Amino acid sequence: MSYIKLLLVEDNVLNQKLINLTLSKYGFEIEVANNGKEALDKLKDNHYDIILMDLMMPVMDGLETTRLIREQEKETGSRNIIIGLTANTYDADRDKCLKGGMDEYMTKPFDIKQFGQIVSSFGFEMSKV
User: Fold this and answer.
1) Among 11, 41, 47, 127, whose Cα sits 20 to 30 Å from the Cα of 53?
2) What span, in angstroms and rounded, lies between the C-alpha atoms of 71 and 62?
């Protein structure tokens, strides 16, 4: 079985544990970054199939991190799938995510069914391990 490499960029330890526990059952290999700066550092040395990016974090928020990732991609020619993650359910937040360079958006609490629909739209297959 091949694992899907996912970078979870989330500052809340409880959310990290919940998402990690949930996704590890579905064929994901997960690394965690506590903020955008840590995510950028991890991206220097690693490739991830999907980045799950919290919007509101200390040090560097999700929108700024996404903008910097997209700038780096112009130089490398690669493209990461970035899914925004936020507690806010406003349409304006969804628009902000998509206009900010994210590929998709989902709200907290983390919903495995919604996440499954999103990742399958990008051609990934989640399988129960």
Assistant:
1) 127
2) 14
Sign for the CA dihedral angle at 64, 79, 32, 14 comes to: positive
Q: Which domains does the chain have, with CATH numbers?
A: 4-120 (3.40.50.2300)
How many C-beta neighbours within 10 Å does residue 97 have? 24
Regarding pTM above 0.85, the answer is: yes
Q: Tell me the pLDDT tens digit for each residue of 37-92.
A: 999 999 998 989 999 999 988 899 999 999 999 999 998 888 999 999 988 766 77
Contact 38, 62 (CB under 8 A): no
Eight-class DSSP state of 67: H
Predicted confidence band of residue 94 (pLDDT cuts 50, 70, 90): confident
**Token pair in block for residue 23:** 């996704």
